[in-house]
Specification:
Layout: E1 2-7, H1 25-33, E2 38-41, H2 46-56, E3 62-63, E4 69-73, E5 90-94, H3 99-113, E6 115-117, H4 123-130, H5 134-140, E7 146-151, H6 157-165, E8 169-173, E9 178-182, H7 187-200, E10 205-211, H8 217-222, E11 225-228, E12 243-244, H9 249-261
Parallel strand pairs: 1-2, 1-10, 2-3, 10-11, 11-12
Antiparallel strand pairs: 4-5, 6-7, 7-9, 8-9
């Protein structure tokens, strides 16, 4: 049996305010020793995730920009992907639309809905809204498939969502921003595809998903074991059959993983 862990980052594996992951480090090291992949499934960009993988000392598949793609290291876990030739050591399965398509659409409606797009923010503004340092803020701007934004009147989100759907786009809600991305992009869909790839290579799969925001519900709903990480700054998610971790952030992440896997 192969266990796959799909985890959100901000407010889940990382502390929502400080981005610290130290309380989770002992469990991360145990998972690495057991060859259990920690699949970062997040709104962060590929560039950000590669930076964090280096910090976490992991080298696993990952799902960036809210399910817009799946990146798998070349020659990883004996997975073969002939239809997706590797580039710079990574296979990429794209589920979303291009960044240019998304930003072009948002440019036509940003005044109508009073939204501020990520691409219109300077580094200082991004730092103010996210708490990232300047290096990470720049990595967050290296987008391929989605655009975060702030909307002045959140009550208009449902109207915007219906309009965006006409262009093959979706609107999701994260911890700090709303996100515009291709309708085919979905954390749950990406998780199911990656799980299927493992099964086709004769693995029996068990999936564990962890998250704290509405855009994590697709993986929580699709996983064998769903773990909600409480976030003191927002309402706790509702998800059928999910376990609620005993603490926020990386401490709760570690406690929940330890209990689920009996480590």
């Amino acid at each position: 049996m192969k266990t796959l862990i799909f985890t959100d980052m901000d407010g889940t594996l990382l502390d929502y305010h400080t981005y610290d992951f130290a309380p989770a480090l002992p469990i991360i090291n145990e998972l690495k020793a057991l060859n259990i992949p920690i699949i970062l499934t997040t709104s962060k960009t590929k560039s950000e995730i590669l930076w964090w993988q280096e910090k976490l000392k992991i080298h696993c598949p990952f799902i960036p920009e809210n399910g817009s793609a799946i990146y798998i290291p070349k020659d990883y876990d004996n997975l073969t992907l002939p239809a997706y030739p590797p580039h710079n050591g990574w296979h990429c399965i794209s589920l979303g639309k291009s960044y240019d398509f998304i930003t072009t659409y948002l440019a036509t409606i940003k005044d109508k809905y009073s939204i501020t797009c990520f691409s219109g923010m300077d580094i200082e503004t991004i730092i103010k809204h996210t708490g990232l340092d300047s290096t990470q803020a720049q990595l967050a701007r290296e987008r391929e498939f989605s655009e975060p934004f702030i909307i002045e009147n959140p009550e208009l989100v449902e109207i915007l969502r219906a309009e965006a759907a006409l262009y093959g786009l979706a609107i999701t809600e994260g911890g700090r921003f709303f996100h515009c991305l291709g309708r085919g992009a979905d954390k749950g869909a990406a998780m199911r595809i990656l799980s299927t790839i493992y099964r086709r290579h004769e693995y029996d799969i068990t999936t564990i998903a962890l998250g704290d925001s509405p855009n994590d519900l697709p993986i929580l709903n699709a996983a064998n074991f769903a773990i909600i990480i409480p976030n003191p700054s927002k309402k706790i998610l509702t998800c059928k059959d999910a376990t609620i971790a005993p603490s926020p952030g990386p401490r709760g992440w570690a406690q929940a993983i330890k209990e689920t896997l009996c480590l």
